[in-house]
Amino acid sequence: MTRFREALLAVDENTIPVPGTDIGRALTAGAAAMEKNDRHKIIVLVTDGEDLEKSGIANAQALGQRAL
User: Fold this and answer.
1) CA distances for 29 relative to 24, 50, 63, angstroms
2) Are the C-beta atoms of 68 and 35 separated by less than 8 Å?
3) CA 20 – CA 41 distance, rounded (Å)
4) Per residue in 16-32, pLDDT tens?
5) What is the pTM of this model?
6) Can you tell me the distance from the alpha carbon of 58 to that of 60, in angstroms, rounded to the nearest whole number?
7) Which residue, among 21, 31, 10, has the nearest Cα to 51 in the 3D structure?
């Protein structure tokens, strides 16, 4: 079983104790969880599309620049 599938199966209604959507924080946490030496890095973000903290686009751009 892939790590992604294992993580997906572990998600339930208690996974996120604080309601709301912080896309920027999710992207930063995903990037931090990756191995530094991995050549290929992909983040799959599943969201309702509402970025309550308004940091998603800026964090995605910053992560994209670091990947170049």
Assistant:
1) 9, 18, 11
2) no
3) 26
4) 777 778 899 999 999 99
5) 0.66
6) 6
7) 21
